């Protein structure tokens, strides 16, 4: 099974996948955020099962526990967590939200 939203974390400082990163997927509803899925990146830095296989349109966020990941590596980081908020505008489309990470910078994009 592949969930509606997936992710991949690459540790740019090491040039390798970031395995063991805890990730939380939340949906915004009313005035609050609600957890719809959690997972931990595998040896390839991926989570293919992050929540259900179908989600309704709306606002979502993916949170990455980067502080714990870097602490396990013995590396200081400026960003102990990274949160990416996005609009799921097409309930039929797959959404891939990757994270390119280093101890002092990060970037993201809409993947395929």
Automatic annotation (TrEMBL):
Binding site for substrate: 8, 46, 109
Protein name (Swiss-Prot/TrEMBL): 5-hydroxyisourate hydrolase
Known partners and oligomeric status: Homotetramer.
Species of provenance: Actinospica acidithermotolerans
Residue intervals of the Transthyretin/hydroxyisourate hydrolase domain: 1-111
SUPFAM superfamilies: Transthyretin (synonym: prealbumin)
Reactions catalysed, as given in the entry: 5-hydroxyisourate + H2O = 5-hydroxy-2-oxo-4-ureido-2,5-dihydro-1H-imidazole-5-carboxylate + H(+)
Purpose of the protein: Catalyzes the hydrolysis of 5-hydroxyisourate (HIU) to 2-oxo-4-hydroxy-4-carboxy-5-ureidoimidazoline (OHCU).
One GO-annotated biological process of the protein: purine nucleobase metabolic process
E.C. number: 3.5.2.17
EC category name: hydrolase
Gene3D superfamilies documented for this protein: Transthyretin/hydroxyisourate hydrolase domain
Organism domain of life: Bacteria
Transmembrane segments: none
Family: Belongs to the transthyretin family. 5-hydroxyisourate hydrolase subfamily.
Keywords linked to the UniProt accession: Hydrolase, Purine metabolism
Any GO MF annotation of the entry: hydroxyisourate hydrolase activity
Gene that encodes it: uraH
